[in-house]
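User: Fold this one for me? It's Pseudouridine synthase.
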Amino acid sequence: MPNAYSRALKAHDNNQEGIRLQKILAQAGFGSRRKCEQIILDGRVEVDGELVTELGTRADPSKQEIRVDGSRVRLNPNHITLALNKPRKVLSTMDDPKGRYTLRDIVGDKYERIFHMGRLDYDSEGLILMTNDGELSQHVMHPKYEVEKTYIATLQGRISGNVCRRLVSQGVQLDDGWIRLDHCAIIDANHDTTLVKVVLHSGKNRIVRRIFDAVGFPVKRLVRTQIGPIKLGDLKSGSYRVLSQTEVRSLAKEVGL
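Assistant: Here's what I get for Pseudouridine synthase.
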């Protein structure tokens, strides 16, 4: 039960315009109220371009631009962002006229106007991000930002370290131009298959499969494990979780919001 002081403080807050900055920052995932107060005192917060160091300062996050260390504070209780682990044989769409399994079959109709940020092909697995935040989605999918994506690929055949290094240093020419991997490392190998970790920024359709097809090592299995700062982790196939405010903030910062 709240004590008389906290009730009075809440009533006082509600009678004044705006919300205390430290409360806004705490709700946005910057830590405890005390930690957020220190962030303000350290001169890391701006409201509409003006540096704020007074703890009593109030703001309206729906009308004013609040930034911490230059990154905008995003606080909308109606926005939701999900991490979903897509299984094989699931379409990266919300509906399918042929009645095939889609992302909607996993998330249901619990969230209004939610949609996926990017896709995975029908036979690929792993991390897909979904949101009802249009601005965040536009930035994540915009070619200007080309968010880094990490995959674990099982290749047919035994690829050499030299081929991996060449895909990073020189790249390979595909039908739609040259493409390079940002990173390629062999995790394990036997006579028939090679397990590799690859990182790249491109979001082109089936790009990982096309790269390895071009060098003679078709992909037998492909799992996306990370998009920007968001990791798949131990999320079970066919399930999803709601991203924390801290995760959403890190993703937004990655794409310039």
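One thing worth pointing out: The mean pLDDT is 88.
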